[in-house]
């Protein structure tokens, strides 16, 4: 039995025996429509093509011409891309130049490259030429190795992919051929469970009706089966026996995986091709023995490869702010260099008469008979060279290692987020995914959360609840006895077939559906459930059960709503058991009836409905339509029965009020002339190569009118576990949660209450308007009302954020992208909750942009479906839910998870930790490097501004690589200022990130002042201690090196909250490593300062100086920390103390931790 799904069926209306179009006369005379093709239109999506283009034919210059089974002729005029793919970025030849070019896109790298080049000039050589290149070379090398490894893996994967084998028709025989050798125009045969090697137009399949089941999980992440169809004209051709030839004129390669427009000329006829006739590279054939198709796009031109790019790159807000501080450091660096060069100029001018013989400077060279000047270029050039040499000496003021440290810390943070079992979804067996490593810290600063409803707050597992049929409400108590007995079932070949999902039924409606007769109410119930069973794109698949005598019918489809409706129809005795390309078989109360599917217009976001044309066994033809109430009541003929319409509207309101999703069902009979008119219009539209979707939509609109109202359905989409608690926690964390949904207003409000988004204390402002003027007036009135409400709640010390705004998509049409946006923003920003109903996907993105473009607050969007992609990519942080609607949202997101409730630990715990760690690490890196530079600066001031350095060049190089790098990274990954328990218990603690308490301009300047003090202590204590001694500069340099390394590591140790063995090992290990390196450097005879550390360390004064430096430098910092923690503690410090002493309930008089709002 072929169980088929009429998604984008063959677009010609033909008889299988004659292969000719059926005329209206033949339709009138015959009832055998079994093999007639299905009309399709209004493909789901937002198509913007105008009707004016719909009839325009594409010329040869704008189209791709593919000659079936003739690759030579196909590629004769234009050599199309071969099927070899290459995802690797580099080759052996291009790796070095291209990788370096990409790396030097970072301005900081260019800065260090210029420094290294300047140091190579003899006039400016401060460090050894090799040592000056080492820091930049190390960073470039590490990054290059990482990039090379990743690219090697891509090349390895490409090689495996390109060398896979496929059956290709060669000389009327199918022969195995490597994928990379397949050409456009060749005929390819794919067997069951094999992957499609290129984009192919389906010619024939093992199924006599031409259907093929495909799984697109490699393409769009969706695991449900989809159906593709071969045209009747090619269906009966056997490639090995029949000559296959023809011309396909198709659109040029593009990224739209859901669209395809083409025409095929075969046997003198021209037929249209659509998305249902093409199978894309990467799809897998399922439940089909074999399929044959012709390659139309190959290699890099396939839709899969054209879409082989990630989501738009996003940049961390913290990193953006960090660049401002780097600019300040750059200005500070230039200031130091100007001071040194100016002082050097003054010094040279003052001693210009002494320069010839002055020790350590001697301008004259008396070593030869002829006295000449050394390299002296005049006062002006000497000042200029002093400036450039200062830049070289003080170069590490800009921390090159910070970029690498940040990347490594983010990787470590991502690892712990992924491995967090509290964000593991057992129901779908999915872990948290970190798809964008560069914005981890943004998770700790979110102010606005924009959420989809269906599948994000709810489970998107629909369950049929109530029905309204012909104005009668069937919403009574459900029976479980019928379900326990197994529900409705049928006998097939001695086996019991029953639906896979059991549905609770209304006893009264069940009894009425069983006693079908000629009464009006019985016919209405019959038509209603027939519409539920037939008007859909469901694929009935028979699967085995644990009982060998029982089979289960699994209804697979792209829409959970449709699945619920079909399961409901089956429970009431209307069981869909078979679907082919031209008919469906429904078991109706034990009697199997065959209906010819003569046409279908699928759901789209413009019409918000779908329709199917059924040919009855008695030769009558009817069109069934189902869709949203807003679109359906416009096309219902109210004159037929106004009372039924009014009663149904009342029932819909009551269903929506309890949070149920509703659909309206209608029907009308088609006369012969009406059907012929539709058929003609459809064939014209379906053969238009450009603008086809727009014209097909117009055909659908002309068909769907003057309907008889059959009734309405109500489906429950239950909230996910933990959603109310999660929203409550987010709101306590001072986040504004906005819900953007396409559902009805009543449904959204009901879900809002059940999810605790809305509360009984809130005042609601509702805006539902149909014109720009009315929207303007509503916004003005709402602003006045909102201000009054906030003034009242503020005066009573109540929650000031007690206003909820509810607005529909129609109103947003007149507000977004107009001058009214500003008023909407002003109103929305004053509300605690915003609920947007009936919004389109682009409107969701527009709402996010409304806040993102007008505030500096961080935004997060979370959704689970393809309609949420625009919103997810617009927000600062995008989160995808691995739900029932495929994986488009996940593939476009920065982070992905299985349940909405995981957002709480992600933001409140990991987001807080990530932000605190990264903010501290950036400030610490600024301090660490500035301290070293300032010590060098003080030394320059005491050595005639000659820019000689006491610290060896190797210690200068190793300072940021070995001496101090590792502790920064380890603490940035592992340190925790608060435990998970405290962060989850007190969501208000999240506010520290929103208020930027850990990283701001004030903290930066405080850090720089502390750095200045520590540099003065580190430099002047040894200078004063050894003032009249004969100590050499190398010994002092070793002392300063050790002192600075000890200081920065002890500084870090003072700020560590959670000590681990790795923290101890990194901090104390770095100090030990520094000592070892200094000893090794001083033990090498060819290097300056030979044996200096051994002589220095043998004196007690050295150890006194070292200890004095550490104590004196840290005392101010220690005093300030103690004062702030005891006299002006912040929320985090209070919570930390409460954690430490386990008396959080006694911290304040009220027994709760007092938080800043």
TrEMBL record:
<dbReference type="InterPro" id="IPR044492">
    <property type="entry name" value="P_typ_ATPase_HD_dom"/>
</dbReference>
<feature type="transmembrane region" description="Helical">
    <location>
        <begin position="957"/>
        <end position="974"/>
    </location>
</feature>
<feature type="transmembrane region" description="Helical">
    <location>
        <begin position="1003"/>
        <end position="1027"/>
    </location>
</feature>
<feature type="binding site">
    <location>
        <position position="452"/>
    </location>
    <ligand>
        <name>Mg(2+)</name>
    </ligand>
</feature>
<dbReference type="GO" id="GO:0005524">
    <property type="term" value="F:ATP binding"/>
</dbReference>
<dbReference type="InterPro" id="IPR008250">
    <property type="entry name" value="ATPase_P-typ_transduc_dom_A_sf"/>
</dbReference>
<keyword id="KW-0460">Magnesium</keyword>
<feature type="binding site">
    <location>
        <position position="661"/>
    </location>
    <ligand>
        <name>ATP</name>
    </ligand>
</feature>
<feature type="binding site">
    <location>
        <position position="868"/>
    </location>
    <ligand>
        <name>ATP</name>
    </ligand>
</feature>
<feature type="region of interest" description="Disordered">
    <location>
        <begin position="1"/>
        <end position="54"/>
    </location>
</feature>
<dbReference type="GO" id="GO:0045332">
    <property type="term" value="P:phospholipid translocation"/>
</dbReference>
<dbReference type="InterPro" id="IPR023299">
    <property type="entry name" value="ATPase_P-typ_cyto_dom_N"/>
</dbReference>
<dbReference type="Pfam" id="PF16212">
    <property type="entry name" value="PhoLip_ATPase_C"/>
</dbReference>
<dbReference type="GO" id="GO:0000287">
    <property type="term" value="F:magnesium ion binding"/>
</dbReference>
<feature type="transmembrane region" description="Helical">
    <location>
        <begin position="1039"/>
        <end position="1058"/>
    </location>
</feature>
<dbReference type="InterPro" id="IPR032630">
    <property type="entry name" value="P_typ_ATPase_c"/>
</dbReference>
<dbReference type="InterPro" id="IPR032631">
    <property type="entry name" value="P-type_ATPase_N"/>
</dbReference>
<feature type="binding site">
    <location>
        <position position="844"/>
    </location>
    <ligand>
        <name>ATP</name>
    </ligand>
</feature>
<feature type="binding site">
    <location>
        <position position="742"/>
    </location>
    <ligand>
        <name>ATP</name>
    </ligand>
</feature>
<dbReference type="InterPro" id="IPR023214">
    <property type="entry name" value="HAD_sf"/>
</dbReference>
<dbReference type="InterPro" id="IPR006539">
    <property type="entry name" value="P-type_ATPase_IV"/>
</dbReference>
<keyword id="KW-1278">Translocase</keyword>
<feature type="binding site">
    <location>
        <position position="838"/>
    </location>
    <ligand>
        <name>ATP</name>
    </ligand>
</feature>
<dbReference type="Pfam" id="PF13246">
    <property type="entry name" value="Cation_ATPase"/>
</dbReference>
<feature type="binding site">
    <location>
        <position position="864"/>
    </location>
    <ligand>
        <name>Mg(2+)</name>
    </ligand>
</feature>
<dbReference type="InterPro" id="IPR001757">
    <property type="entry name" value="P_typ_ATPase"/>
</dbReference>
<feature type="binding site">
    <location>
        <position position="867"/>
    </location>
    <ligand>
        <name>ATP</name>
    </ligand>
</feature>
<comment type="similarity">
    <text>Belongs to the cation transport ATPase (P-type) (TC 3.A.3) family. Type IV subfamily.</text>
</comment>
<protein>
    <recommendedName>
        <fullName>Phospholipid-transporting ATPase</fullName>
        <ecNumber>7.6.2.1</ecNumber>
    </recommendedName>
</protein>
<feature type="transmembrane region" description="Helical">
    <location>
        <begin position="383"/>
        <end position="404"/>
    </location>
</feature>
<dbReference type="Pfam" id="PF16209">
    <property type="entry name" value="PhoLip_ATPase_N"/>
</dbReference>
<dbReference type="InterPro" id="IPR023298">
    <property type="entry name" value="ATPase_P-typ_TM_dom_sf"/>
</dbReference>
<feature type="domain" description="P-type ATPase N-terminal">
    <location>
        <begin position="66"/>
        <end position="132"/>
    </location>
</feature>
<feature type="binding site">
    <location>
        <position position="741"/>
    </location>
    <ligand>
        <name>ATP</name>
    </ligand>
</feature>
<keyword id="KW-0812">Transmembrane</keyword>
<dbReference type="GO" id="GO:0005886">
    <property type="term" value="C:plasma membrane"/>
</dbReference>
<keyword id="KW-1133">Transmembrane helix</keyword>
<feature type="compositionally biased region" description="Low complexity">
    <location>
        <begin position="14"/>
        <end position="30"/>
    </location>
</feature>
<feature type="transmembrane region" description="Helical">
    <location>
        <begin position="926"/>
        <end position="945"/>
    </location>
</feature>
<feature type="transmembrane region" description="Helical">
    <location>
        <begin position="326"/>
        <end position="348"/>
    </location>
</feature>
<feature type="transmembrane region" description="Helical">
    <location>
        <begin position="1065"/>
        <end position="1084"/>
    </location>
</feature>
<dbReference type="InterPro" id="IPR036412">
    <property type="entry name" value="HAD-like_sf"/>
</dbReference>
